[in-house]
Design goal:
This protein is an alpha/beta fold. It has five helices and six strands. It has a six-stranded mixed β-sheet.
């Protein structure tokens, strides 16, 4: 699990040559834990489109890295993992989406090739996870 600042995460997102589904979550966030498997499955269904699933942990400093890594292994999550090393939501939230208040779960769908970018600042249903991922890869 890589520790990143918001500028590095922004750079990763902006330079991606493939579609991204980015989930902002924490180990203590029950709605996050409900939707992660749905998003993993939705991304897996788009494997041929090379969609990357990224889990960006907003867990507290004392949880990084040991507690978060242990939790990820225990839950059998399959994604690219980052821990956001930021504490000022007023600084990092608008860099993801100007409407983001900092609540989680929150998801960002980005496809730089098609200029697709959609932010959803609430828990998705299983059906919504599939539908949003299909929109992400639509040409």
């Amino acid at each position: 699990m890589k520790k990143v600042k918001i500028d590095a995460l922004e750079s990763y997102i902006n330079s991606s040559d493939h579609p991204l589904v980015i989930s902002f979550w924490a180990t203590w966030c029950t709605p996050c834990l409900h939707e992660i498997p749905w998003l993993q499955d939705a991304v897996e269904k788009q494997r041929e489109k090379k969609v990357e699933y990224i889990l960006v942990s907003l867990d507290f400093t004392e949880a990084y890295p040991k507690k978060i890594v242990h939790f990820i292994k225990q839950q059998n999550f399959n994604a690219t993992f980052f821990w956001l090393d930021e504490t000022n939501a007023d600084h990092f939230c608008p860099k993801i989406d100007e409407k983001w208040s900092g609540g989680i779960p929150a998801n960002l769908f980005v496809n730089n090739k098609t200029n697709y970018r959609k932010f959803i600042g609430r828990q998705l249903t299983e059906r919504q996870a599939i539908a949003e991922t299909e929109l992400l890869v639509k040409e």
